[in-house]
Design goal:
This protein has 567 residues and is α+β, with helices and mostly antiparallel strands. The protein folds into 3 domains: 161 residues, no CATH class; 95 residues; 242 residues, Ribonuclease H-like superfamily/Ribonuclease H (Nucleotidyltransferase, domain 5, 2-Layer Sandwich). It contains 22 helices and 18 strands. The longest helix has 19 residues. The protein is elongated and about 120 Å long. The protein starts with a strand and ends in a 6-residue tail after the last strand.
Length: 567
C-alpha cells in the first residue's frame, strides 16, 4: 500500500512526489532539478520498481501547470518497512549495501550533470561502467533505477525479500501474477492489427526472455552473416518455444498474435546486446535494396523457383579413345524458394542462351531415371523426386535470362510469370546463389582432377586453373554423376530455415528440403500454380527445326532415327 504524506508550500526538490488525480492517483517523483527543467520517474507500489523506466525530462513550465491544478498535490512517499530500517553495522546486509553503493556511486555523481541524463548518454555511461566492472548492464541499470525510485535512498539498494504485508499475503513467486488487479503488469505499446481477430497480446518480456533473444542472435551470427529478422524467427522457433511451450503452441495454431514482434526483438537487442567485433561484422542491415518484393515471396512449394547459371570451375574432356579438351561447362540450377529443394541441374558446353534454359526447365519435371539412364548415372525418381514447373520464375539480369526469346517463351508461351531482380540485388535470390557456392566448395574439396578452387584473378589462382586444364580427365557423364550426388545430398540434409517454419514445427515434420517439397505439394492449399499441365509443357519445351527423310531414315541435326517397327 502506498503511504502518501502531503506537504504545503513546497519547492520542487529531488525526492519529492507530485500526486496527480482525484480518485485514481498517479505519483511522479523528482530525481533531479535544474534551472530550466526537472527529471522525474513514475512510481507506484514498491514491487513495481523492477519495471520502472529511466528518469524523463520535464520542463519547469509543464511541471508548474501539473502542480497548479486542484487534482495535484506535493508530498512524500513512505519507504517500505523493510527498507526503512538500516542494517546492523558489519552485518551481511550492510556489506551488501556497501558493495552495491560502490558499484553505482560514480554513475550517480555523473548523473548530477544534466547532459548525462540524456537517453543515449545515460545508457552509454552505465554500459561503460558495466564493462569496466565486468558485471551485467541490466544489473547496474536496475540498481540505479531503484535508487531514484525510492527517493535517492541508499537503502533502496537492498533487495525486497518476499514476505507478508499488513493488508496482503506474500508476494507472488510468479512474475506474471500480481494479486492486486489494479497494479497488474500490462504489456506496453500499441496492439497489433490482428488484435481484433486473435485477441489482445498479453505476453510480457522479462529478463530471461531478453537473455534468450541475445543468445539466439549470437548463435546466428556465429554461423555467418544474418539479419535481425532471421534471428527473430530463430528465437521464436527455438528459445521461445522451449521457455514458453504453451504460448508457442497457441501461436502456431493461430489462436494468439505473435507474442514477440520483430520490432520488440530489435528494440531489446539494440538496448541490451553487447556484441564483439567478430559477431558485429556478421550483422547485416537492410540499408541496401534487397530485391525482397511481395511478388517474389513464396507461400509454399512450386510457387517460385530461383534459376541461375554459373561457369563451373572444372574442365571436361571428350569420351573418346584420345580425349579432347572440351572446356569449362555452364551449370544451370533451378531451386524451389520455399523448400530449398533442387528441382533441376543441367550442364552445357554451349554459350548461354534461352535454348539452354529451356533444357533446364524440361529436366525439372522429367523422370530422373529416363533422363540420366543414358549417361550411366544411377538415380531414380525415389532418390530425386520429379518436380513441377512453377507459377513464378526468378532469374537475375544475365543475358540468357533477359533475352527477348526468354520473355517470349516463358511469359507468353509457357504462361509463367517472370520476376527478374532489380539491378545490384544478387541476394534477392540468395538461395540458389548459396547452393552454387556450396557446389564449388565441394567440387574443390573432392580432389577430382581438373578442378580448381578460386576464380583465376591473381597469379596463383591462374596457375591453379592452368594445372587443372592440363590434368582434366573427367567427361560430361562424370561431372553429372558428381553433381547429382551433391544435389541428392542437399535435398536430404536438414536445413536451418525449415526448422523455423511454423508449419513444420506444428506438424512435427523433418526439416529436409525433399520432405518439405513433397509435403507442401500435398497439404498446402491456395498456392499459385503453373496454368498448364506437364504434358502441355513438355510439348511447348520441345525444340523445333528441319529434318529430312530418305530411304526410311529420318535425319535431324545430323543424327539418324529409325522406325520402331516396319509399319
Amino acid at each position: 500500500m502506498i503511504e502518501f504524506h502531503p506537504i504545503v508550500n513546497s519547492t520542487p526538490t529531488p525526492g519529492l512526489v507530485l500526486r496527480i488525480g482525484d480518485t485514481e492517483f498517479r505519483y511522479l517523483r523528482l530525481t533531479h532539478v535544474f534551472e530550466s527543467c526537472v527529471y522525474a520517474i513514475w512510481v507506484s507500489e514498491p514491487e513495481q520498481a523492477r519495471y520502472a523506466r529511466r528518469p524523463s525530462k520535464i520542463l519547469l513550465k509543464l511541471l508548474d501547470d501539473l502542480s497548479s491544478t486542484n487534482a495535484s498535490k506535493w508530498g512524500r512517499l513512505a519507504l517500505p518497512p523493510v527498507l526503512a530500517v538500516p542494517p546492523l553495522a558489519e552485518s551481511e546486509r550492510q556489506q551488501e549495501l556497501d558493495v552495491a553503493w560502490n558499484l553505482i556511486k560514480p554513475l550517480i555523481e555523473s548523473f548530477e550533470t544534466e547532459t548525462n541524463l540524456d537517453r543515449k548518454r545515460f545508457s552509454y555511461l552505465i554500459r561503460a561502467r558495466a564493462e569496466a566492472l565486468e558485471v551485467k548492464y541490466l544489473t547496474l541499470f536496475r540498481m540505479i533505477i531503484r535508487y531514484y525510485y525510492f527517493g535517492r535512498s541508499r537503502l533502496a539498494l537492498l533487495s525486497l525479500p518476499p514476505g507478508l504485508s499488513a493488508n496482503k499475503g506474500g508476494y507472488s513467486e510468479n512474475k506474471m501474477e500480481i494479486s492486486d488487479e489494479k497494479n497488474k503488469i500490462k504489456r506496453k505499446g500499441r496492439q497489433s492489427v490482428l488484435a481484433q481477430e486473435l485477441g489482445v497480446n498479453k505476453f510480457i518480456v522479462f529478463e530471461d526472455d531478453i537473455s534468450d533473444m541475445i543468445a539466439s542472435l549470437k548463435t546466428c551470427l556465429r554461423r555467418g552473416p544474418t539479419y535481425q529478422s532471421l534471428a527473430h524467427e530463430e528465437y521464436l522457433a527455438t528459445q521461445f518455444r522451449i521457455r514458453h511451450p504453451d504460448i508457442h503452441k497457441a501461436y502456431l495454431n493461430g489462436e494468439i498474435p505473435e507474442p514477440v514482434t520483430v520490432r520488440q526483438f530489435k528494440y531489446y537487442i539494440k538496448k541490451h546486446a553487447d556484441l564483439d567485433d567478430n559477431l558485429s561484422k556478421n550483422l547485416r542491415s537492410l540499408a541496401r535494396q534487397q530485391g525482397y518484393l511481395g511478388s517474389i515471396t513464396a507461400s509454399g512449394p512450386g510457387e517460385i523457383y530461383e534459376i541461375d547459371a554459373t561457369i563451373g570451375r572444372f574442365y571436361l574432356v571428350s569420351d573418346e579413345e584420345f580425349p579432347k579438351l572440351l572446356g569449362k561447362p555452364t551449370i544451370y540450377l533451378i531451386i524451389d524458394r520455399w523448400s530449398r529443394f533442387v528441382v533441376s541441374i543441367y550442364l552445357s558446353l554451349r554459350s548461354p542462351s534461352y535454348e539452354e534454359v529451356r533444357h533446364a526447365l524440361l529436366i525439372a519435371f522429367t523422370s530422373r531415371e529416363l533422363r540420366f539412364k543414358g549417361i550411366g548415372i544411377d538415380v531414380n525418381d525415389k532418390r530425386w523426386p520429379v518436380g513441377h514447373l512453377p507459377a513464378v520464375l526468378c532469374p537475375d539480369r544475365g543475358s540468357d535470362f533477359m533475352s527477348s526469346a526468354m520473355e517470349q517463351s516463358v511469359v507468353q508461351d509457357l504462361l509463367i510469370e517472370l520476376t527478374p531482380l532489380p539491378p545490384f540485388c544478387p541476394d534477392g535470390k540468395a538461395i540458389v546463389e548459396r547452393f552454387i557456392r556450396e557446389i564449388k566448395r565441394r567440387m574443390a574439396g573432392s580432389g577430382i582432377k581438373g578442378v580448381y578452387a578460386d576464380r583465376p584473378m591473381d597469379p596463383l589462382s591462374k596457375r591453379a586453373s592452368r594445372k587443372a586444364e592440363s590434368a582434366a580427365v573427367n567427361t560430361l557423364s562424370d561431372a553429372y554423376r558428381i553433381l547429382v550426388e551433391i544435389v541428392i545430398d542437399h535435398n536430404n540434409r536438414p536445413h536451418t530455415t525449415l526448422k523455423r517454419n511454423k508449419e513444420f514445427v506444428k506438424n512435427n515434420l523433418s526439416p529436409v528440403p525433399q520432405d518439405a517439397y513433397l509435403w507442401g505439394l500435398q497439404n498446402i492449399t491456395g498456392l499459385r500454380k503453373a496454368p498448364l499441365t506437364d504434358e502441355d509443357y513438355k510439348k511447348l519445351l520441345l525444340s523445333t527445326g528441319k529434318a529430312s527423310i530418305s530411304n526410311g531414315v529420318l535425319k535431324y541435326k545430323q543424327r539418324p532415327y529409325l522406325p520402331n517397327n516396319e509399319t
